[in-house]
Amino acid sequence: MTDTPKLIAPRLPRGFEDRSARDIAAVDAMIARIRAVYERYGFDPVETPLFEYTETLGKFLPDTDRPNAGVFSLQDDDEQWLSLRYDLTAPLARYFAENFESLPKPYRSYRQGYVFRNEKPGPGRFRQFMQFDADTVGAAGPAADAEMCMMMADTMDALGLSGQYVVRVNNRKVLDGVLEGIGLGPADPARSLVVLRAIDKLDRLGDDGVRQLLGKGREDESGDFTKGAELGADAIGKVLAYTGASGQGEDLFGTLRGLVSGNARGEEGVSELEAMAALFAAAGYGPDRIRIDPSVVRGLEYYTGPVFEIELTFEVTNEKGQPVVFGSVGGGGRYDGLVSRFRKDPVPATGFSIGVSRLANALKLTGNLVASDVIGPVVVLVMDREAISDYQQMVAELRNAGIRAEMYLGSSGMNAQMKYANRRNAPAVVIQGSNEREEGVVTIKDMVAGLEAAKAFTDNAEMKAARPAQFSAPRTGLVEAVERVLRADGGAA
């Protein structure tokens, strides 16, 4: 007696998700609108692989004791370490450096694809997620950064989110000036990084949570403890005074200049923010769409100047049932040192990234993204197995006419085949039994009209006898008859 083999439990790995046809169609429609804005600004597509050499990506994610912290890595057959990309920016820097001689400067491109983070998954936090980026490489100065912010705003408008977002803008140079003023910055890069990451959690943890992370540390609800920057009370006060600076125009810039007075890098950052604000005003982007906000940091380490985030401002309910602002769906900034890792000469660059999955969720909540059912193929039923070549010929004729079609390939009878067509969301079904074949006709059932007509019947037997939205057509007129049904239902024929 042989042992029954143990079945493998079908399990989706934590931090990953499956996507259905209707989800894919909805996201594709959203991406098409984003792409149209990018191309209107003069950006062209480029695609890089999922894997890069680990040293190419660099270590810009949070450090731990593992050499491949934050990323999924493996060794190839010549013992080179490869990693799945954790964003689309580091691969672009490699691509630009490798193709430097042949690319136009500045180089304007957009990219869409999956990225991977080897991090602890949680609600809304995935290990694989899609991003949609746009970057300008080879352009220094605040004008290129300002253009990115304006394009972010235009993208949100194109997606139907006017009045429900704000692009928040800051400059890392200003924060660097604040950090140097409390004895950090280049003098203590490790603690400076802890401060940056603490500020980046401001919208989620609030002032009290960030204050703990700037001090001794913070224990979260699960009991995990995050070690803090161990700043003194005066230093914590200065950092929070910086992140809490409010207002617009000269009131805000005056406050920021006071916080970095005497620090050349910090003062340079304030000047760049003033220049960007002037460009926003000149182009008609008011603070209701693009706003200077010192609390914006961005978590990645490679940013060197202006940084920006798209925040959706409408309220949603969190897992605790509390009303909260939806929050960030993307962002970016200037990263002048990233390409310079590959070349001796400095290469300025700026760009931003949209979190596709998170943005799609936001659009569903606002009614701007409807995950409607995908229209399936016309299904040709197989009523007579011995005549299968005739059914295959019908399918070929429909496909040659540009109509999505398939022949039923299962082994069930007519009722099960009709249920199959319903599950496939078929707009029409083609039926030909032996009697129809002898008469030289086919029966076409309009599934959309039939569903609507069925609502008028209260008796199932009566409905079957009436055969609503079902008609006969000459076999030679199959394509024309199906096209007529598709046009009537609003499908493409």
UniProtKB/TrEMBL annotation:
L-histidine binds at residues 87-89, 117, 131, 135, 298, 302-303. CDD domains: HisRS-like_core, HisRS_anticodon. One of its GO terms (cellular component) is cytoplasm. Residues 35-377 form the Aminoacyl-transfer RNA synthetases class-II family profile domain. The keyword Electron transport does not apply. Gene3D superfamilies: Anticodon-binding domain (3.40.50.800), Bira Bifunctional Protein, Domain 2 (3.30.930.10). Its EC number is 6.1.1.21. It catalyses: tRNA(His) + L-histidine + ATP = L-histidyl-tRNA(His) + AMP + diphosphate + H(+). One of its GO terms (biological process) is histidyl-tRNA aminoacylation. One of its GO terms (molecular function) is ATP binding. Its main location: cytoplasm. Keywords: Aminoacyl-tRNA synthetase, ATP-binding, Cytoplasm, Ligase, Nucleotide-binding, Protein biosynthesis. It is found in: Cytoplasm. NCBIfam families: hisS. Belongs to the class-II aminoacyl-tRNA synthetase family. Homodimer. This is Histidine--tRNA ligase. It comes from Arsenicitalea aurantiaca. The gene is hisS.
